[in-house]
């Protein structure tokens, strides 16, 4: 007889095989500020409550904007905050091969196409009142979707810069389960509830950019799976993107983490950062004499 589902799994989304795994995943393209501190602290608190491990990952696929000095500064700032991570940090720039292999599988399934458009061409074709994606960018109007394969090959061979896009309609035909796609959301009471998600709202997302052989969506999904992440804890600004992540997990047959999208640190005028803290880097607050305990307390944490 089949074993009943593990009760822990139903309650916390923890992997049946082992301890929950969480991650804090900043992009080292600037100094960490209070918003990052908040996200790291929420991760640490949940890891503690679940008895899980907390990993650190540097999302440095944008080689023009990410710099080693920002990474070094982040390590210092996180230590100052009192946070400890399990194992050494993972650097996405060291795993381009894994992302390429996953993109290659989508191409082999006939779900990708090269796109030669510039941002300006896309904006012009989409028009000022055209449909937008959940981030407010013009929805890709499909200009390159039907370029004949021979022509695309010729243009690539001639060195024309191109991105690789997901053919969203084809991907949905292939991977959308009968009842539609959902994510498992972790509630504050630590139970999971299914929430429907809509990848189609993003249109033909970019999988590999002109200047980098992957994209946020691809590398985050591949890494969460390769690192065995069971609980993705990140800001509300990334909640809509989870629809794309769930679709990619379906297409690649990857496990489905539980998601918790925390509030953003807002100031009185609705900005992302508490005004008292400004958008000041943590290291600047520190230089001004703010103690780590003080910052933690202002974000609602008594302990790291
Ligand atoms: N690297 C992203 C950021 O710094 C976070 C990605 C994620 O947590 O999924 O906003």
Automatic annotation (TrEMBL):
EC number(s) for this protein?
6.1.1.-
Q: Which domain of life is it from?
A: Bacteria
Which Gene3D superfamilies does this entry report, sorted A to Z? HUPs (3.40.50.620)
Instruction: Could you list this entry's UniProt keywords, alphabetically sorted.
Output: Aminoacyl-tRNA synthetase, ATP-binding, Ligase, Metal-binding, Nucleotide-binding, Protein biosynthesis, Zinc
Q: Is Nuclease one of the keywords UniProt gives this record?
A: no
Domain Glutamyl/glutaminyl-tRNA synthetase class Ib catalytic: where? Answer: 22-276
Q: Which InterPro entries match?
A: aa-tRNA-synth_I_CS, Glu/Gln-tRNA-synth, Glu/Gln-tRNA-synth_Ib_cat-dom, GluQ/Sye, Rossmann-like_a/b/a_fold
One MF annotation (Gene Ontology) recorded for this entry: ligase activity
Protein name in UniProt: tRNA glutamyl-Q(34) synthetase GluQRS
Organism in which the protein naturally occurs: Camelimonas abortus
Protein's gene:
gluQRS
């Amino acid at each position: 007889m089949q074993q009943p589902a593990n009760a822990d799994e139903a309650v916390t989304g923890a992997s049946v095989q082992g301890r929950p795994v969480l991650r804090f995943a900043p992009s080292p393209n600037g100094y960490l500020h209070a918003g990052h501190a908040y996200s790291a602290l929420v991760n640490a608190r949940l890891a503690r409550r679940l008895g899980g491990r907390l990993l650190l990952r540097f999302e440095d696929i944008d080689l023009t904007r990410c710099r080693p000095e920002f990474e070094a500064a982040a390590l210092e700032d996180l230590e100052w905050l009192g946070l400890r991570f399990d194992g050494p940090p993972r650097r996405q720039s060291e795993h381009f091969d894994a992302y390429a292999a996953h993109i290659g599988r989508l191409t082999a399934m006939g779900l990708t196409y090269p796109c030669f458009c510039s941002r300006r061409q896309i904006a012009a074709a989409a028009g000022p009142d055209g449909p937008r994606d959940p981030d407010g960018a013009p929805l890709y109007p499909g200009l390159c979707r039907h370029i004949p394969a021979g022509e695309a090959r010729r243009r690539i061979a001639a060195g024309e810069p191109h991105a690789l896009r997901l053919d969203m309609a084809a991907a949905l035909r292939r991977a959308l389960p009968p009842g539609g796609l959902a994510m498992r959301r972790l509630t504050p009471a630590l139970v999971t509830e299914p929430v429907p998600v809509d990848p189609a709202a993003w249109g033909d997302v970019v999988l590999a950019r002109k200047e980098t052989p992957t994209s946020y969506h691809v590398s985050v999904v591949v890494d969460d799976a390769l690192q065995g992440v069971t609980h993705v804890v990140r800001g509300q600004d990334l909640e809509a993107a989870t629809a794309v992540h769930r679709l990619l997990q379906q297409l690649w047959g990857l496990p489905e983490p539980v998601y918790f999208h925390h509030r953003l640190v807002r100031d009185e005028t609705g900005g992302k950062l508490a005004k008292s803290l400004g958008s000041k880097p943590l290291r600047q607050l520190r230089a001004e004499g703010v103690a780590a305990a003080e910052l933690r307390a202002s974000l609602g944490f008594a302990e790291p």
